[in-house]
Amino acid sequence: MTVEIIQAVTKCQLKTFCEYPNKLYKGNPYYVPTLVADDYKTFSKKHNAAYEFCDAAYFLAYKDGEVVGRVAAILNTRANETWNKNEVRFGWIDFIDDEEVSSALIGAVESWAKERGLTSIEGPLGFTDFDTEGMLVEGFEELGTMITFYNHPYYKEHLEKLGFTKQTDWVERRITVPDAIPEKIARFSNIIKEKYELQVVKYTRKEINEKGIGYKLFDLINNTYCVLYGYSKLSDKQIKQYVDQYLSMIDLELVTFINNKEGELVAFGIMIPSMSEALQKANGKYFPFGWYHLLRALYLKKTDTVDMMLIAAKKELQSKGIPALIINELIPKLWKFGFKYAETNPELEDNHAVQNLWNSFESRQHKRRRIYGKEIK
After folding, report:
1. Can you give the pTM of this predicted structure?
2. Distances (CA, A) of 251 to 24, 158, 331
3. Contacts from 294-299 at CB under 8 Å and sequence distance 24+?
4. DSSP-assigned letter for residue 49
5. Within 10 Å of residue 357's Cβ, how many Cβ atoms?
6. Which residues contact 180 (CB under 8 A, 6 or more apart)?
7. What is the pLDDT of residues 48-87, one digit of tens each?
8. How many Å apart are CA 151 and CA 95, to the nearest integer?
């Protein structure tokens, strides 16, 4: 049987698109399901503010009447303008170990791209850097995280046979929480704080809302990440979406804010308890009991691992050791809640300033993710 590609446009088809990975990875102990309801919002023009400057299409592959793959085609005009590219992004790609299927899926994205005059293809990428990105190429026997994809080892082989080559890699580390703050981190932290007259501050949720801290936080993210690979600045509409979506749920005890002497936010760090096991128990659904597992992990800290979600600092402070100051402040909170390990989010392999930070800790680089690209013929 040949592969049939259809574009997912109806509510039922998009639901199938969202649910397909749960079928493909059923029983896999390392796969962490995403929440179908949240994914559906990502693919909805009504709910996803990125559609302000993006266009997208979602494709399903069928063989013998069964769904055997999926892929999203995304045009991010803002990123293309920023990085002087003329490319389509592919994302949310999953498929069985069948080269006919993977070829048909990529072919659908390329055809969609050609209709729009695009000349190259790259991925896995999302609408923005706040979507899940990167293909796993090392660490297939490691538990995934809430913000990363899991995929089979054969994905890499399929893409390379289709002519894709490496564009960049991200690496991830699992860090053992130390019994004491490393002397180098503690000393450096005090020097930075005094030299640049910085203050570690705490905000209540009420203060965050009244002082617009959430918006300042995402402005800082835009200014920090704008030089990183493929980043497109968040719009005001997106920032509002993320403030409403995320800041209401995070535990402020695991957030560190750094202000300058004028009281302006200049850096921050956010950690959350690992949601991996809770998401596995929820199996992609809030109901009937998914919400219980998620809230239990988030607020009762029923896990031994914390995920390091975001660290950002103003440009003039980025080379001054701000991450050391943030880590210094967060470690006692990890002790308080009994966390034994910390998972970094994906970090660019050539971001040596961040990679060197972990030299003071017992850690292992256990996962690697890759962005692939090629010209469209």
Report:
1. 0.93
2. 33, 41, 15
3. 297/273, 298/249, 298/251, 298/272, 298/273, 299/251
4. G
5. 22
6. none
7. 999 999 999 999 999 999 999 999 999 999 999 999 999 9
8. 9
